[in-house]
Design brief:
This protein has 207 residues and is an alpha+beta fold. It has helices at 3-11, 84-91, 148-151, 170-198, and strands at 18-21, 27-29, 37-40, 43-47, 58-63, 67-75, 117-120, 128-142, 154-165. The strands form two sheets. It has a seven-stranded antiparallel beta sheet with strand order 2-1-7-8-9-6-3. The protein has a two-stranded antiparallel ribbon with strand order 4-5. Strand 1 (18-21) and strand 2 form a beta hairpin. The model has no long low-confidence stretch (mean pLDDT 83).
């Protein structure tokens, strides 16, 4: 392996996070923990017309579902099939899914949605249920043998997932209660940090 690849592997920590296909109930434990996770939640406002006015008033209309984007790295330098099985797992998350009862049926052009997933890493203490919005797969480090090199067997794959939270699910409702407690804890921590930096105790007296 080249030096850049070695250093890349060294900075990645052993994976312990998990994603579960809610249709097949098949779990996948990360090969490596993600190094970054990005979340967003858009807030929509309606802007009222105000002809000739200095500004237009903004009225709250709705929240958009929270979304996260995370990249998972799969790596297997020794297996004859590389990471093709791992790729197959994530490809199922972007295919029509009729559920367990439809496993023996031919999908054809049926309008089945992809499966939901149970995902836990970074965004909550408990696994939450998410809709799959996008799955992007980048394959690399192909085997160079006479057989596997011709077929194109990848040793490494970077899987980028965009997930939208099922905010009405009971797991998310329970998580919101925990998040509220964390919000107050964060507020108290920030005040304590500022007071410690200024050398002021909780009584307001400078030490």
């Amino acid at each position: 392996y080249d030096d850049s690849f070695r250093s890349e592997v060294q900075i990645m920590s052993q994976g312990h996070g998990i994603i579960i296909n809610m249709s097949s109930l098949a779990p996948f434990i990360f090969t490596f923990n993600p190094t970054e996770l990005e979340s967003s939640k858009k807030i929509n406002y309606a802007i009222a017309p105000n002809i000739g006015g200095a500004y237009k008033k903004r009225y709250f209309s709705a929240f958009v579902t929270k979304e996260i984007t995370v990249t998972l790295t799969c790596l297997d330098m020794e297996a004859p099939t590389g990471v093709m099985e791992e790729i197959a797992y994530f490809e199922q998350l972007r295919e029509p899914d009729p559920g367990i009862t439809g496993l023996l049926t031919l999908y054809g052009n049926q309008n089945y949605p992809p499966p939901q997933v149970l995902f836990q890493f970074g965004v909550s203490f408990v696994p939450l249920v998410w809709d799959v919005i996008e799955v992007s797969i980048k394959e690399s480090y192909f085997h160079s043998g006479m057989v596997r090199g011709v077929i194109g067997v990848p040793k490494k794959a970077d899987i980028t997932l965009t997930l939208a939270l099922d905010e009405g699910h009971p797991l998310n409702v329970a998580n919101q209660v925990a998040k509220k407690a964390q919000m107050y804890a964060a507020s108290a921590k920030s005040v304590a940090r500022e007071m410690a930096a200024k050398g002021v105790g909780f009584s307001g007296v400078r030490r």
